[in-house]
Amino acid sequence: TFRSIVSSYPGAALGLVDVSTARLVDTRVRNCISSRISGDASGGGIYARDVGDLRLEQCSFSGTATVQRGGGGYLLRTPVVVTDGDFSDGLASTVAGMFYLDQCPTAVFSRCTFENSRGTRAGAILALDVGMLTLEEIQFSGNRATVESGALHLERSAFAITDCTFTRNNSEQVPVVVADRGGAVFSVQSNGTVTNTSFADEKAIGQGGAWSQVGGDVEFLNCRFERCRAGVFGGGLQIELGGRIGLTECLILGCEARFGGGVAASFTGDIDLNHCTVVGGRGLSAGAAIYVDTDSAVGLRNSIACCAVSGDVAFCGSGTILVDHSNVWNDDSVNLRGEYGGECADPTGTNGNLRQDPQLCTADPDYGLQAGSPSAGAAADGSDQGWRPVGCAASTPLNVTDTSWGRIKSLYRTR
Fold it and tell me: Can you tell me whether residue 114 is helix, strand or coil?
């Protein structure tokens, strides 16, 4: 245990320079601070430079801070593997509330939690020029940034994110600081994949409530975006200045922005949705599901975009939407705005495109299709449109058991 250490040098708890291998097991770092303003004093908990192989196993960092980079740790040119870690309440006056990864050849985080850390950029992790960042079964919750990247900042780095959850990073629950872009993640000129990952209750005051992207090519597979919000562009996801976002078998539910409640693409950035469902979005000015402008393009294939709470479903402002074998529909009893707005051409009746109530399983959190849905078998290959096939999940009855206050307290007594 390293506790309550204040240093004017890098790595208040531990500094590693030119070490061949280092392994920390079952190690706790508490309330350690690197306080030097001038010179290099990065890494409130640990500083590692040119370490051949660094491993952190079952480690816990809490209350670590720096006035520079990496409230929990600053790792430079160091391959690292972190497993079963718990990282909370980190603080960086500049960037990366917990870990700053700088030119690391590889960085692997598995089965870890990152909670309530803060920085001007990257509330939890910043990856700069990382050869390959792997995140597996990671929970990011309650992290926040004042500029961008509420939880994770990716810059010129390759990455693979699998089975992770992002929840309430820069959400209304922490209104004092809210990122301008990338409520959960901001990706800059980075290529990677995001698989089986969920984003819920994320917020940015500018763009990209859950995910904001500049350049790069990112593929999302079987991901969820729920109740995410942006003040201007892209309540769920937003891209600009080139690059591409691909979404396959993804759900975007109840997301909101002024332009593009679900997704927004600008300035030659492209988005492709294949077998996706975008439902219940709000476009406060335009595009409850999709907004595209300034020479960008959005492709909607084998998908469902429907049921906007406010705004037209799709809006084109000098951009293009290419719709193929998809169902785009607005419920006039809820929202009188049309399905397509701005310069969007209405493709209904061509290329297998529909404008009918898709009959979603609204009581099912997976929003599959009811039997008899017009979207059943309507995809280009004869499969069902949307992210889930026909079949509503049966509701699970709530099991309530009588108990007493004494019984509840006994569960928390020290044994």
Answer: strand
Q: What share of the chain is helix, strand, coil (3-state, %, to 5)?
A: 0, 45, 55
Please state the rounded mean pLDDT for residues 86-107: 97
Reading across the β-sheet that carries 65-66, which strands appear in turn? 6-7, 33-34, 65-66, 91-92, 118-121, 144-148
| Torsion (CA) 282, 285, 291, 293 in degrees, nearest 10 | -170
Calpha distance 89→397 (Å, rounded): 37
* CB-CB contact of 152 with 121 (8 Å): no
The backbone torsions φ and ψ at residue 315, rounded to the nearest 5 degrees and listed phi first, read -135, 135
H/E segment holding residue 274:
strand 270-274
Nearest Cα to Cα of residue 123 among 143, 104, 103: 143
How much is the pTM? Answer: 0.93
**pLDDT value for 173:** 46
**Model pLDDT, residue 414:** 52
Digit-coded pLDDT (tens) for 164-198: 999 999 854 444 456 789 999 999 999 999 999 99
Checking DSSP bridges between strand 229-230 and strand 203-204, what pairing results, if any? parallel
DSSP, residue by residue, 18-42 = S-SEEEEES-EEES-EE---SS---
- Give CA–CA dist 358/244, Å, rounded: 28
**Are residues 394 and 363 in contact, defined by beta-carbon separation less than 8 angstroms?**
no
**With contact defined as beta carbons under 8 Å apart, do 269 and 295 qualify?**
no
Residues in the chain, total: 415
- Residue 244 pLDDT exceeds 70: yes
Residue in the block written with tokens 């020029």: 129
Q: What is the mean pLDDT of the chain?
A: 93
Distance (Å, rounded) from C-alpha 233 to C-alpha 224? 18
Q: What average pLDDT does range 121-128 have in this prediction? A: 97
Model confidence at 411, in pLDDT bands (50, 70, 90)?
Answer: low
Please write the tens of the pLDDT for every residue from 323-361.
Answer: 999 999 999 888 888 899 999 999 999 999 999 999 999
Distance CA 47, CA 103 (A): 14
Distance CA 52, CA 295 (A): 46
Residue 65 CA to residue 69 CA, distance in Å, equals: 9
DSSP letters for 143-173: -EEEEE-SSEEEES--EEEES-EEESTT-TT
At 108, the amino acid letter reads: V
